[in-house]
Amino acid sequence: MFPLIAIIGSLVVLAGCVLDFILRRPSFDDLFGAERPMKPLDCLRFFLFGFTLLLPIQKASFLLKIRRLILALAVICFLVLAVTGFFPVLILGKSIFGYWMMIHVIFGGVFAFCLALLAVLWAQDNSLDVSCCPLLRKLFSEDSGDVPSGGRAELLQRAVFWLLMSLAVPLVLSILLSMFTLFGTDIQKFLLACHRYIALGFAVIAVAFAYLAMINNAKKV
């Protein structure tokens, strides 16, 4: 059941991102060239553009450089955890074992620490407070129909960010609690199953968040 859910969830998110990319393509004039017809390699160029968002900016402040480095480390850990966590289950048909488990545990601890830092350092930028976010004031005003689609995309990115941070709590707690001997075998198996499904949801939503972040930053180039 889990492999089927993982495949369906991944395909749905990827298909949604590709479809949204095709529909939004005309607004990327600054990135791809004004009024240039869409080309097959534009998706690759867009992916490479997203990679550049992880690189530190030379003239940026020290705090911004630290934020970029933490984000880059979190992305690396996420990719390693995705491979070590899903490859044995989806491809080999086995639970995590041996070196897969060792690598997963090591990078999992680093990833949890990075998530805590990201929640603190990016909290202000992703604020959903009406007093701090003019997008929310427009959405809840009588003229909500005049809100630009770009504003909605940025607001959606902020909401997805906090959804990820919310999922990070049960994601970490489920695996930590399963290591304690206070619980019986059945509860430990249940916690491991919860960790697996929460991790799948986290990974799918993280891909959607990365896409939204690239969309919003592409318009600021």
Q: Could you outline the blueprint of secondary structure elements for this entry?
A:
Elements: H1 2-24, H2 29-32, H3 42-52, H4 62-90, H5 98-121, H6 134-139, H7 149-177, H8 185-218
Helix pairs in contact: 1-8, 3-8, 4-5, 5-7, 7-8
Folded structure, characterized:
The protein contains 8 helices and no strands. By secondary structure, it is mainly α. It has 2 domains: 1-52 and 128-221, no CATH class; 56-121, no CATH class. It is globular. The model has no long low-confidence stretch (mean pLDDT 79).
Question: What keywords describe this structure?
Answer:
single chain, 221 residues, mainly alpha, 2 domains, globular
N-to-C order of helices and strands: HHHHHHHH
From the N-terminal CA to the C-terminal CA, the straight-line distance is: 43 Å
* Secondary-structure content class: mainly alpha
- Number of beta-strand segments: 0
Uncertain residue segments:
none
Based on CA atoms alone, the radius of gyration comes out at 20 Å
Total number of helical segments? 8
Principal-axes geometry comes out as globular
How large a portion of the residues is in β-strands, by DSSP E?
Answer: under 5%
| Largest sheet entry | none
- Count the domains: 2
Let me know the average pLDDT.
Answer: 79
Helix content: over 70%
